[in-house]
Design brief:
The chain is mainly α and 301 residues long. The chain is built from nine helices and no strands.
Length: 301
């Protein structure tokens, strides 16, 4: 049963390990963001006011590029990959899904899970209690496993899409603020055309490139999540009308899980502070949807 399995110690350990890994990956992502936006912005302004500092800007840009390509990007992807694999083990166990040995020939090393879980628990700032009841369990005892599984998968998909839409809105704001700051600085200091072009090219281009890339990747992720949601709604209707058997539903849920795993592994990361800021609201909404779907199932039987 989902309520019991999700709160078993092994699964709490898996959740703490994957949360620790994603947090570390997000810290690397934040470092990349800081190096790309605030630092580049400040240095481009410095070059505009003090042209002799242009060598500093060039050296910094080359160093950041090398650091990103050699270390930051690979470390970030590695942590995301291990985190996604651990969360896949959690879902397969709790939702009673078969392991896809073609997509993932090997599971996460037990040592890795224990290591990252222990790290998470040692940090007093981490909220261990938030790992319990990962999936809401209203009326779970009254509905069959195939319906419970689909409700949980829907929660995964809609939660992720909602956070990504909020993140994209913040990217719009960040981009606008960055451009306005550059223009205001140029106007205040009455910069000549050459200096203004330096600010625009050196400051706006990297910022715009980072923000546009983030938004593009998030929009692609949201599109995939919305498509998955439509598939889930069709499956849900099939369960309610009993036009889909358990075998077919399990097969399709496994395919949905493959999509969820792939997105967890490849999708851009959302900062932790956005997650925690909107978590109470999202939890409340998910609980209401779970209760609504559970009652809908019971009413149609």
């Amino acid at each position: 049963m989902i309520p019991e399995k999700q709160n078993a110690q092994i699964n709490i350990d898996r959740l703490s390990a994957q949360r620790n890994l994603y947090t570390q990956a997000k810290q690397l992502h934040l470092l990349r963001m800081v190096l790309t936006i605030p630092c580049v912005l400040l240095l481009s302004l410095l070059v505009a006011f003090l042209p002799i500092a242009s060598w500093l800007f060039a050296a910094f840009s080359i160093s950041v590029f090398a650091l990103d390509q050699i270390f930051l990007r690979s470390q970030l992807q590695t942590k995301k990959g291990i985190g996604a694999l651990i969360q896949e083990e959690f879902d397969c166990d709790v939702l009673e899904l078969p392991w896809n040995s073609i997509m993932n020939p090997s599971r996460c090393q037990r040592e890795d899970c224990i290591h990252y879980s222990t790290q998470y628990k040692k940090n007093k700032k981490n909220k261990i209690d938030s790992l319990g009841d990962w999936y809401e369990s209203i009326n779970y005892d009254a509905i069959p496993q195939n319906a419970r599984r689909l409700i949980c998968q829907r929660s995964n998909v809609t939660w992720d899409a909602a956070l990504r839409r909020r993140y994209n809105n913040l990217m719009y704001i960040a981009g606008g603020v960055g451009v306005i700051v550059l223009i205001i600085a140029a106007c205040i200091y009455d910069l000549e055309f050459r200096s203004f072009i330096i600010i625009t090219a050196a400051g706006v281009a990297p910022i715009a490139g980072f923000i546009v890339g983030e938004m593009k990747d998030n929009n692609e992720a949201i599109s995939k999540l919305d498509k998955a949601k439509h598939v889930i709604e069709s499956l849900w209707e099939g369960i309610l009308t009993r036009t889909i058997d358990d075998t077919k539903q399990l097969e399709t849920s496994r395919q949905l899980q493959d999509l969820i795993f792939g997105m967890r592994k490849m999708n851009p990361l959302i900062p932790d502070w956005i997650y925690w800021k909107h978590r109470p609201e999202q939890v409340s909404l998910m609980n209401q949807i779970v209760e609504q779907m559970s009652n809908e199932y019971l009413a149609r039987q």
